[in-house]
Hints:
- The chain is an alpha/beta fold and 303 residues long.
- The chain has a five-stranded parallel beta sheet with strand order 2-1-3-4-5, sandwiched between helices.
- 49% of the residues lie in helices and 8% in strands.
- It folds into two domains: 7-219, Rossmann fold (3-Layer(aba) Sandwich), CATH 3.40.50.10490; 236-299, Helicase, Ruva Protein, domain 3 (Orthogonal Bundle), CATH 1.10.8.
- The model has no long low-confidence stretch (mean pLDDT 92).
- The chain has helices spanning 27-38, 41-46, 49-64, 75-92, 121-130, 149-160, 172-175, 200-219, 236-250, 254-263, 268-277, 281-290, 295-299, and strands at residues 69-73, 99-103, 138-142, 164-168, 182-184.
Amino acid sequence: MREHVDRSKLTTEQASDRSRDIDRKSALEIVDLLAAEDGLVAPAVARERERIAEAAERVVRALRSGGRLIYVGAGTSGRLGVLDAAECPPTFGVEPERVQGIIAGGPGALVRAAEGAEDRADDGARDLDERGVSERDVVCGIAACGVTPYVRGALGRARERGAATVFVTCAPEAAGDVDADVVINPVVGPEAVTGSTRLKAGTATKLVLNAITTAAMIRIGKVYGNLMVDLRATSEKLRDRAERIVCQVTGVSREEARDLLERAGGRAKAAIVMHRRGVDLAEADRLLEEAGGMLRRVIEREP
């Protein structure tokens, strides 16, 4: 028999006094109320800055050692993890398998609710087994309410396998009840629509995941200055951006940037090294590998 969890005490399930009459408001009044509630999110995330940074550094260590970041969640939390994972390859040029998102119920749950899938802790453990999670990986469990069995089962299996663990929840009542290396707990309070954690809790979660992966990718050299020099130019927009990045860093014309990118196989970072160091693609790749992928070390000869 499944253990009953009293969710009525969780902050994410409480009714907000500020929105008790939300059903009597006009559309504009509802929008204003939601905007006021959303204003609580950024400060709540900022209060978790040290723990978010610690999680990012664990991801850095994992990626540098050939490991992975694996998000695990259900419902909105799971979709946000999958979203963040999907955005890393085009933005930072990281291989798709290095940042993964797992959602309870499988890929179909991304577009159609499969809420019952979150109740099976064994499924969370099984899904990690199928991906061969090891001590080189970081597993980040996401559960707005903090008690999702699927996520807890996944985190438990991750610990058994020696992986580093991160837990993101918006419920302070659950933050101290999960055995994870890093617990990130932005407390945003009750939702405007009681229990609808796709609102403030979802926004807070998105900000936390953005910060973890962005900080980690910058730390491993995927950004030069504030330019995404490792982006994958897989669309007209991204090809245009790659050209502009090469122009900005090297000072060459658009036409020259286009030629450099063509010779570099569309890779902005390699194109920049080829121009700045006067080398061919093979040597540019060697220099970048020697510098651990850090463009600044190559073109500015930093130690």
